Amino acid sequence: MDDIDLEEVAAELKAKAADLRARIAELTKVVDADATIGFGKRIGDGTIQAIQQMEDTSAAESLQRTLNEVEAAQTRLRAGTFGRCVVCGEPIPAARLEFRPWAATCVQHAG
Known about the structure:
mainly alpha; zinc ion binding; zinc; 3 helices; elongated
C-alpha cells in the first residue's frame, strides 16, 4: 500500500463513478412522450429496436454493478480500509489495485 497514492486513487474513483453515472443515464434516458416506435415496412425493424433496448438494459445493469463497486471502494477509502481484502483482511496487491482500483478482494477471494 505504501506505493499507492491514495489521493490519486480517490480522484480516479471519482472520475470513474462520474463516467459510469453518465453512461448509465444515457442508456436509461426516458424516451420523449411524442416519440413513436417506427416499424418500417418490415416486421424485423421493431424486433431490432426491441433487441437494442434489451442490450441497453443489460449494459446499464452491468455498469450499475461496477458503479456500486466503485462507490464501495470510495467508502473503504474514507474508512481507511481501502486496499485490504473484505474477506480475509490481507492487503490487496498493488498491481491489482492499479488495474482495478475498486477491487474489494485479494486475488485468492476474487472468484
